[in-house]
Design a protein that fits this description.
By secondary structure, the protein is mainly alpha-helical. The protein is 55% helix and 4% strand. Helix 1 packs antiparallel against helix 2.
Length: 108
């Protein structure tokens, strides 16, 4: 179930990026959807791209929420930190009687 939702999320996000890049930009940045001629007028193309962006954005948002819910159900109340063993390192600090400063034991 999670894999299917992730694949759909990937397709929706790729489509959303493509539709946003095709839109006409007022600043002339990345928009490639301008110009006259073609199958649709520029106003009709803008309407289709705007509706597509709205639909894909809503689908992306909804899929994100669904994926979060599915991931929460699959977790079964376990945290990442629950899997880590609570093992403390054993650092035996010894005090040298001559200078009374702590030192680590010799490795060897």
């Amino acid at each position: 179930m999670m894999t299917v939702l992730l694949i759909i999320q990937l397709l929706v996000s790729a489509g959303l990026v493509g539709v946003v890049l095709m839109q006409r930009s007022d600043g002339g940045a990345l928009g490639i959807g301008g110009g006259g001629g073609g199958m649709m007028s520029s106003r009709g193309a803008a309407t289709v791209l705007t509706r597509s962006t709205t639909f894909l954005g809503a689908a992306f948002f909804a899929l994100s929420i669904i994926l979060a819910i599915v991931a929460g159900v699959d977790a079964q109340g376990q945290s990442v930190f629950d899997a880590v063993e609570e093992e403390q390192p054993n650092l035996d600090l010894t005090i040298d009687p001559e200078n009374e400063t702590p030192s680590l034991p010799d490795e060897g």
